[in-house]
Amino acid sequence: MSERSVAQNAQLALLLEVSGTPKPGNVDREREYDDLRFEHFMAGAVGARPGLDRAAAADPIGPAFETAVEGMAAQSGGNTQFGALLVLTPLAAAAADRRLSPSDVDAVVHETTVDDAAAFYRAFEHVDVAVDDPPDGLEPLDVRRGRDAIPELRAREMTLFDVMASSADVDGVAAEWVSGFERVFEASEWLLDGSGPVADRASDVFIELLAAEPDTFIVTRQDRETAEEVQRRAQAVLDGAETATDLAEEFVERDINPGTTADLVAGALFVALERGLEV
Amino acid sequence: MSERSVAQNAQLALLLEVSGTPKPGNVDREREYDDLRFEHFMAGAVGARPGLDRAAAADPIGPAFETAVEGMAAQSGGNTQFGALLVLTPLAAAAADRRLSPSDVDAVVHETTVDDAAAFYRAFEHVDVAVDDPPDGLEPLDVRRGRDAIPELRAREMTLFDVMASSADVDGVAAEWVSGFERVFEASEWLLDGSGPVADRASDVFIELLAAEPDTFIVTRQDRETAEEVQRRAQAVLDGAETATDLAEEFVERDINPGTTADLVAGALFVALERGLEV
């Protein structure tokens, strides 16, 4: 059996993430939105590949991420995997020439530069991403400004790591960047310890992560109260008081989309694949 | 929006094929077998990519196909996309440096060599493929002999096109090779003329192809009678007398798998994507 490359495992992680079902509120194999469909995630994973190849070839993280986002966006559904790629890019870079330990990934993100930050800002020009207003004083660095914010980044000498650190308290993916991808690595262990179809394990891990912390994408698109309700309901599924399928129907109906939690699952799938998870 | 490469469209065709549902008897987004699951098709499409890259780079068809099969087989479900890759490899080669017309593909398959045939035989060593006994007199060329049949191929100076021609009457993919991929190109027009989600169009086209001719993979695994029953039942779906969903449940139950028809759908999706089908 031939071995998959690092970039192939990253691409497969994107595909397996959306193959898990049910993943309440997210597009999965059995649920989709009229304008954001399963097929858009397939095309997103195909399009992201050149960027993942760059990350795995130890190209700088920022440009690799921008390339991945540009390719991901080459489908008509809009943003499918921006956050997942922001998780996967440093992980793929760490897997390429280190051992993909938390400290290896930590080294990768700490080595990012102002140029990486600039590329990250440019990535927002390829696709509409739902984001909150920036905190007071950080308006010049609003990611929605795209490349217009780059002079300000340079003036403040902010690396991509610094940018992530500035939003770690409101964004679950940024929080991973500054914590050594703690939740991703923990969830990868759950995947490796599980049994049965990988897609089912991805669904289980999604519910466990959702029950553990409020999803920041829900905080952004709805509010903290809704995110906390979702967290309680996910815990109710773990307790056997509700079913994941009922939650999935309801959340899609209410347009509640725990996108950050899905991003972490994609990262966990990648780490697990690199560590021998068999598909 | 960045454009997908030829190899990316071929990979996306594999992913969209299995995303269409219902596709009675085949693995799709909502149905799978215990030992052959949706996730195996995801991994197959990821693994096939290096071979698709070779085909799109105008490498010889046979080795490109063998590479694609070897990568496809790097998952635990067994044969997921052998036939689909046998359809896609010459199409990708034709798309790479010609205009992907039926005559362009015809030229590609007629240019195949004895070395291409040898690589095709080696491909059978990477994965178990359900095939019939060869006709009388062709036992030395039984594909199940793998590389052991290569001296006989060389003695008879059989090209890969010759090999396909020898089984065109019993294998629907081989029949495409010798007919300028007639059914694939026709089905690609149906996809382009359709509307709505691409996955739904893939499902519709699958039923139409199934109603038009007996599926040769069913003939191989079951018998001609079953294949003809499946053809009639697909026509009944088109006539509104049965539903595709009922057929899907029944065929999975009976382990009836119209795999050749799925292979043609993958080819049709590729041609349609190359000709502007939007996802």
Automatic annotation (TrEMBL), chains A, B:
<protein>
    <submittedName>
        <fullName>Triphosphoribosyl-dephospho-CoA synthase</fullName>
    </submittedName>
</protein>
<dbReference type="Pfam" id="PF01874">
    <property type="entry name" value="CitG"/>
</dbReference>
<dbReference type="GO" id="GO:0005524">
    <property type="term" value="F:ATP binding"/>
</dbReference>
<dbReference type="GO" id="GO:0046917">
    <property type="term" value="F:triphosphoribosyl-dephospho-CoA synthase activity"/>
</dbReference>
<dbReference type="InterPro" id="IPR002736">
    <property type="entry name" value="CitG"/>
</dbReference>
